[in-house]
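CHAIN AND CONFORMATION:
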Amino acid sequence: MKLSRSHWFLSAVCLLSFIPLFAVNPLTLFERRESAANISNQKSTTGSNAVLVELFTSEGCSSCPPADKLLTELEQSQPVSGATVIALSEHVDYWNRMGWKDPFSSADFSRRQIDYAKSLGIEDYYTPQMIVDGRTEFVGSKRSAALEAVSKAAQTQKAAITAELKDGSPNSVSLSVQAENVPEISHGDKADVMLALAESGLRSKVAKGENSGRELAHSSVARKLVKIGTVDGKSFHGEQAIKLDSAWKRENTKVVVFIQERSSHRILGATAINL
């Protein structure tokens, strides 16, 4: 949905994309087998099968809860053989004017979604919208489309990325990032190294808007997304200090590191590590 379009388009997309899914407890997100997700508490190395799945969502949209559950399922259950799903839930802010202000929303994520629309050559952006490895988009509650896109993305060449936690304090950590065998960057483009902090186990009691009266559960909610460097050649090495908000539950928080082409938005590799 373009920000300039009227509310009827949002509602129409929401109604069309409402597909009930079985409930997944987001609190169990980090309890999955380490061998399935290649994520450890101190050091994470992810190979060529890592796939970044982003969901643009909002608590103001009545069709978003099924998409939120699907995102959790993809990362918790890892249902695609040969793929490692790394999930990010990015709450947009353009639904806030419809009666409920999403506490996890940010204009930065709305702008990121707009940038995706431009790079993918689509006229409209909407919620829930799922984007796989920066190249494939679809209504975020469509499980079959998600499985197909993840399977296809896992077959493309990716960088091998290692993220390692260094010294830290209750309010900050230091992260070392090493990337090798970065795929060839598209002609004329650049590849940025991005870092996201994402928290799971989040719940909201929605008092207004389309989800009024519902208690919503969220996982892998992006709290911060920043660029920490740019790839030079086929590799990258860097260290980054990360400040933690006291309101975030550290035990439910992970760091996601991914390499993304600046113009095409193609994902060249990703990894994640629990705090």
About this structure: The helical segments are 7-16, 34-37, 64-77, 107-120, 143-153.
